[in-house]
């Protein structure tokens, strides 16, 4: 990966997200700021309804915050038309959602190739190489419905990594996996961070929290940094957003 002049691949500044459904108004995010450096793994924890999925959607540019900004890989992704957000997401972000990111009528390999086709130029790694890395080389011609739960999780990860993203965002990536597959997926996330990716995962899993350098707790739309669990050396300080570029 080329050298970069900035360390924080993901910066969110003062995010608000307001929902209105009929008479009902919900402030799902109330001024959330965070940053994730290259090579860092951050876990986001918190009770159901705290705003975790809303936060992840805003970070991924799948949703627009009502206020605040998101910068990814030095580029602002928030407050742009949806097509532009999709283009930036394809290039800079890998997304693993609870609803899996596989198209049912395409083979595993063609799912990866489809993701790669969304970005101009040659992919950094061939689909076959990526599938070998997640242990699915032999299953590349399988359709999603022919995969086991663990294989589906790994295929989803291969799609998320299709374009060597600077930022990897995952919503409960190990939620329905058995212990062995969970460890495998977590190790793969950790490996990506070691390769310089900024990894942010929403999770309830104690195992997943253990691989994180830092833990951010969301409660009722507000974030507090609770400090790392010692996976690596990152300190427990809450780092301020100093600037935003792009
Ligand atoms: N599209 C939406 N329309 C209305 N309210 C929503 C929508 N998405 C989320 N919410 C509300 O925002 C709050 C946070 O939801 P969510 O981000 O899904 O929480 P979590 O992922 O932490 O369980 C909840 O009160 C939820 O009902
Ligand atoms: Mg959620």
Residues in helices, as a percent range: 25-40%
Main beta-sheet annotation? 6 strands, mixed
Report the radius of gyration as a whole number of Å.
17 Å
Average pLDDT number? 87
CATH topology of the domain at 8-102 and 164-238: Rossmann fold
Q: Give the strand content.
A: 25-35%
What's the number of helices?
7
Q: So, CATH architecture of the domain at 8-102 and 164-238?
A: 3-Layer(aba) Sandwich
The CATH homologous superfamily of the domain at 8-102 and 164-238: P-loop containing nucleotide triphosphate hydrolases
Please write the string of helix (H) and strand (E) elements: EEEHEEHEHHHEHEHEE
Which structural class should the secondary elements be placed in? alpha/beta
- Cα(first) to Cα(last) distance is 21 Å
Bound molecules: adenosine-5'-diphosphate, magnesium ion
Strand arrangement in the largest pleated sheet: 6-7-8-3-9-10
Q: Give start-end ranges of low-pLDDT stretches.
A: 1-5, 232-246
Cα shape: globular
| CATH class membership of the domain at 8-102 and 164-238 | Alpha Beta
Number of strands: 10
For this entry, give a set of tags.
246 residues; Rossmann fold; binds adenosine-5'-diphosphate; 28% helix; alpha/beta; transport; globular; 6-stranded mixed beta sheet; MacB-like_ATP-bd; binds magnesium ion; ABC_transpr_LolD-like; disordered N terminus; ABC_transporter-like_ATP-bd; 7 helices; 4-stranded antiparallel beta sheet; nucleotide-binding; disordered C terminus
